[in-house]
């Protein structure tokens, strides 16, 4: 399991493999207009190598996500080197919602980074007759842990800090 308290996880750049990006994007577009979700595995918290889609079992999947508990349990049993959690915002920017931050409190310790993707139509200038391709806008965050005294003062234990993304 990734340990976000590990000093090695403080790099501001997180690298994502091209294949993981392609898989994450196609899964996201296939799930539209519902939220897509999944996890990313990799050798350490700075390198995300593989995207594993997980079924979204939320009752209202247009604006909520819940990782299928059976799939999640089986990933944990296989001891997959889980590093990051991904979900999509089908029709809003890839910024954490209040609900996302509340949900993070339940599993912040299981991931070192957090990705949100939003499909966005990109217009090809000069080719107005073409249908716009759907592109994916991706935001990446480090999951950080507040000090216990701050948490005791009513602040969230787990929070998100924007990080940079390098697709390699
Ligand atoms: Zn969200």
UniProtKB/TrEMBL annotation:
<dbReference type="InterPro" id="IPR028090">
    <property type="entry name" value="JAB_dom_prok"/>
</dbReference>
<keyword id="KW-0378">Hydrolase</keyword>
<feature type="domain" description="JAB">
    <location>
        <begin position="25"/>
        <end position="118"/>
    </location>
</feature>
<dbReference type="GO" id="GO:0006508">
    <property type="term" value="P:proteolysis"/>
</dbReference>
<dbReference type="InterPro" id="IPR051929">
    <property type="entry name" value="VirAsm_ModProt"/>
</dbReference>
<keyword id="KW-0645">Protease</keyword>
<protein>
    <submittedName>
        <fullName>Mov34/MPN/PAD-1 family protein</fullName>
    </submittedName>
</protein>
<keyword id="KW-0479">Metal-binding</keyword>
<dbReference type="GO" id="GO:0008235">
    <property type="term" value="F:metalloexopeptidase activity"/>
</dbReference>
<keyword id="KW-0482">Metalloprotease</keyword>
<dbReference type="GO" id="GO:0008270">
    <property type="term" value="F:zinc ion binding"/>
</dbReference>
<keyword id="KW-0862">Zinc</keyword>
<dbReference type="Pfam" id="PF14464">
    <property type="entry name" value="Prok-JAB"/>
</dbReference>
